[in-house]
Design brief:
This protein is an alpha+beta fold. 20% of the residues lie in helices and 29% in strands. Helix 4 runs antiparallel to helix 5. The longest helix has 15 residues. The structure holds 2-oxoglutaric acid (AKG) and fe (ii) ion (FE2).
């Protein structure tokens, strides 16, 4: 990015909650530094679980991120209760505290106080809906500063409830696309450490990706010294039986 682009990008002005496009709410700095540290520490514990961080293959090529999951296993063929390539291990469960964070995220992101055009519900209606939000799968990605993620849709879930995404560590350029194509129109926004983004409704199946990580941009007190974690909470709508 040139200096001029940096000066005039949307984010240079605005670290307030905002609707990026209908259904996509960005709440900068939503996680406290303490919560960010907590999440970073969990990665170490989760990584020692039955499914160690690994780079799934997409069309035979390893992704540049390292991934582990909670609740369900993910690979390019979709979600499964057990991990074929890891001795059929079952992932660790989604902890209750993370479900609660997901509910709070949905409630706050879609609060009418932020002026989003979707879902056009009252505060009370949003609270009732958010109270039922029960994510049963979490994908946790670690990006080295050189890692990226190509444009894709999150569509392995049957449920169309929103995706809740938390970021910790270096800032990412996050590409908010459209539901039809991997190409334009899209908008690039910065997801910094502690940012929350929620995408649902008309944007639940938008294409999105991470074209770039901005190295050495994590806050000084962030326990992630290099690179970035992102975790996405989702409801699968699938039954394990
Ligand atoms: O790292 C991000 O912000 C996005 C991750 C993502 O799109 C995914 O895990 O499906
Ligand atoms: Fe995604």
């Amino acid at each position: 990015m040139t200096e001029t682009e940096g000066l005039f990008s949307d984010d240079a002005f605005d670290r307030e909650p905002r609707e990026v496009v209908p259904g996509v709410m960005h709440l900068p700095g939503w996680l406290t530094p303490r919560s960010q540290s907590w999440l970073a520490r969990q990665w170490d514990d989760w990584g020692r679980g039955p499914i160690p961080p690994h780079s799934p293959l997409i069309n035979g090529h390893p992704m540049s991120v390292r991934l582990t999951t909670l609740g369900w296993h993910w690979d390019s063929s979709g979600l499964a209760p057990r991990a074929r390539h890891f001795d059929d291990a079952a992932p660790l469960p989604v902890p209750d505290w993370l479900v609660r964070w997901g509910r709070k995220a949905v409630q706050e992101a879609y609060s009418p106080s932020h002026g989003g055009s979707w879902p056009a519900l009252s505060e009370k209606e949003v609270a009732a809906w958010a109270g039922d939000y029960t994510p049963d799968v979490v994908l946790i990605n670690y990006y080295e500063p050189t890692a990226r993620m190509g444009m894709h849709q999150d569509k392995d879930e049957r449920s169309s409830e929103p995706v809740v995404s938390f970021s910790v560590g270096d800032t990412a350029i996050f590409r908010v696309g459209n539901p039809q194509t991997k190409s334009k129109p899209y908008r690039d926004i910065r997801l910094a450490s502690g940012d929350l983004i929620v995408f649902g409704g008309p944007s639940r199946y938008m294409f999105h990706g991470v074209p770039r990580i901005l190295p050495n941009t994590a806050p000084a007190d962030c326990p992630v010294r290099s690179g970035r974690f992102n975790m996405t909470l989702r409801m699968t709508g699938w039954d394990k039986q």
